[in-house]
C-alpha cells in the first residue's frame, strides 16, 4: 500500500499513472504476475527504449519493481507490481495539525513482552539471533537489533511512548507496518487472522493472505535464505473517533473516545494470532532492512485538550 497524505505528495504517482500505455503496462503485470522487458514491449507494441522510459516512471513512484529474471532465462530484467492499494487523503484531518501531534518510529526488535511458539525466529540484517524455532532467543539481549521476526502462534507487545501534554486526550492513532503470515518455509497462499490490541482492548482482526517468498524483498539482505520469508504487505491501522480502520476499511467500532487514553496512561500495542481463529497462520514482521518497505513500525499520535 502507498499512503498519500496530501495531493502535492502524490504528484509523482499521478504523473506515473497519467498515461494509457503505463496503465496497460500495469494491467499486463497484474494479469501475468511478472513479465520480462522484451515480452512487455511486444505486448504493448512499443520499442524497448520507449518501454524503459515508461517503466522507470512507474519504478520511481513505487508502483513497479524491476528484478533480475530467474535463472535459465538470460540476463533479462523482469517487472512486477509492487503495491496492492493506493490510499489518498484528499482533505486532511483537522487532527493532523503538527501542533497537536507527534510521530515516532519503533524498531521491530524493541518489543517488551511476548509469548511465541514455533515456527519462530528473529534476525538482524547480518545474522540470525540464536537458533530458529527456539522461543527462548526472543529474550536474548540482541533482540533489540532484530530487523525481521516471525512466529507461528502467539503475540508480541510494543510500548508506544505517551508524549501527550497534561490535560490532553488521544484523538487519533495511526500505525503502519510491513507484515505477513508465517508458514514453514514460505507459502504465498497461507491466510492468517492477525488481531490488533491496544491496552488489552481488541481493536479488530485482519487476514494476511500469505507468507511471501516468490522473489527477494527489495531491502532483504543478499545473504538471507531464498526459501524463507522475503517480504510482506504494508498496512495502515487507524483508530479515531469514528472507529478502527485498516487501509481505510472499517474493522470495528472501537474509537479513541472509548479507549479514553490520557497523558497518564500507558499505551501498549499487540500483534496476536492464536486460537480461537479460523486461520492460525502466524505473523512475520519486517523492519526497515528487510522486505519491500524501508521503515520500522511508524506511529503518529493526534491529541486535543480533554
Note down, in words, how this protein is organized:
The chain has 306 residues and is mainly beta. It is built from five helices and 17 strands. It has helices spanning 11-16, 20-32, 37-44, 48-60, 256-259; strands at residues 2-4, 35-36, 64-68, 77-81, 86-88, 101-106, 113-123, 148-159, 168-180, 192-198, 201-208, 233-240, 243-246, 249-252, 268-273, 283-286, 297-305. Strands 6, 7, 8, 9, 10, 11, 12, 13, 14, 15, 16 and 17 form a twelve-stranded antiparallel beta sheet that branches. A hairpin with an 8-residue loop joins β3 (64-68) and β4 (77-81). α3 crosses α4. The protein is globular and about 65 Å long. The chain starts with a strand and ends with a strand.
Report the span from N to C terminus: 34 Å
Q: Specify the helix fraction band.
A: 10-25%
Question: Could you give the order of the helices and strands?
Answer: EHHEHHEEEEEEEEEEEEHEEE
Care to count the β-strands? 17
Q: What is the CA-atom radius of gyration, in angstroms?
A: 21 Å
Fold topology:
Elements: E1 2-4, H1 11-16, H2 20-32, E2 35-36, H3 37-44, H4 48-60, E3 64-68, E4 77-81, E5 86-88, E6 101-106, E7 113-123, E8 148-159, E9 168-180, E10 192-198, E11 201-208, E12 233-240, E13 243-246, E14 249-252, H5 256-259, E15 268-273, E16 283-286, E17 297-305
Parallel strand pairs: 1-5
Antiparallel strand pairs: 2-4, 3-4, 6-17, 7-8, 8-15, 8-16, 9-12, 9-16, 9-17, 10-11, 10-15, 12-13, 13-14
Helix pairs in contact: 3-4
Give a concise summary.
With 306 residues, this protein is mostly beta strands. The protein has helices spanning 11-16, 20-32, 37-44, 48-60, 256-259; strands at residues 2-4, 35-36, 64-68, 77-81, 86-88, 101-106, 113-123, 148-159, 168-180, 192-198, 201-208, 233-240, 243-246, 249-252, 268-273, 283-286, 297-305.
